[in-house]
Write a structure and sequence with these properties.
The strands form six sheets. A six-stranded mixed β-sheet has the order 3-12-10-5-8-7, with no helix packed on it. A six-stranded mixed β-sheet has the order 14-23-21-16-19-18, with no helix packed on it. Helix content is 7%, strand content 53%. The protein has 404 residues and is mainly β. It is rod-shaped and about 115 Å long. It contains one helix and 29 strands. A hairpin with a 4-residue loop joins β26 and β27 (360-376). The chain has three domains: 29-173, Sandwich (Immunoglobulin-like), CATH 2.60.40; 181-309, Immunoglobulin-like; 321-403, Immunoglobulin-like.
Length: 404
Amino acid sequence: MLNVEKKIIGFWLLLLIIIGSNQMLKAQDTAHVLLISDSKIDVCGNIYDKEIVVYISIGEVKPSDGFYGFDFEVSYNRSKFIFNEGLYMSTLASFFDEDKRSVEFWESGLIKGYGVTSSSYSIYGDMPLIAFKGRYLGNCPDTSYLRLKSLNFTEEYTKVFDSTEKYLLVKTEILDKPNRSISAGFSTDTIMFNEADSIGIATAKINVTNNLRLENIEFEIVTDSAENFRIDTVTSVNSKLNIDSTFKTGNTLIIYTTVFDELADDSIFAIKIKDLKRNGEIKELKLTPLKVNDCACIKKLAEGKIIAKGNKPKDTTNTGNIEIENKIINGYYSEIKDKIIIESESEIREVIIYNMLGNLIKNIIVSDINKNAEIEANGLPAGIYLVAVRDKKNEIKKIVMIKN
């Protein structure tokens, strides 16, 4: 009884080995048919950047596979592509005589080709079957399919192959290359607010490195805090760019624009900001180009920022003269001397200079008490500064200075 069971087990093991071997042989004898391309189509490039090469692949062909000839049909969207050249180099089709191979291109969007050898020796190698070259006709990112409708071999071919239709998805893109960007920014680094109405104006700028098919730009303006600063209005200051509409929600304003002419390094918007609390709060205003129209040759969008420094209720800051106890203090920057000049009817004891972020830049004690002071400004970058002046009664008043 035991010997019988061993024989039965041995029989089934042998059967499994035979079946497995047959499956392995079948897998090895299968031609994996593919329609492939490694071309990257750049819709913003020149005519050569829009070229595409498509291959028909059947995997490695061995001498024992009996490969003597083939024919194929591929269809494509004629409104999006034009194919007009068969490629034989580095393909199996290169082994066929020139008069026994061909690729034809039909106006209907059909490609037909064949190859056959009259030699008694079969064709073999590990390379694509055949290839053909074409060009994308459009100017915008898109997708399209090529379809391998049929592929047939001569009767000597021993491999099993999948005769179902094969598809190749082709994507056309705007590739990431230099000079395809839009950067936003501002004409100054700080927004100054009027003392009387707490209104400040920020001039927005843009730098565009590629205007090809640029028609629309969508922008976003955001403040750090809607409680401290409010975006009142945005108006265009450039005839090249028109504001079509805006959409406001919370501390964000979306701006939809149309481009009428080529932009480079241009001012585009005057942004009116309201300082709501007048508590000296320092916040950030950010301008971001969110998107452009689909066909525009823009790949990178960069934001710009500006500092909003609010006024204080009791701050006597002025951009010209201030009056203290009927005494006038005048301050200005002298470009000739490269100095900050302070002239006062009251004696000056100390001058303190801050940048618009509130950082201390200079602190000068006036040893020879005088009604005038000249502060060296070399080393100070161009910008806006807050100058605090302390008089002999220790009263401090402030003046806004602009260094050109």
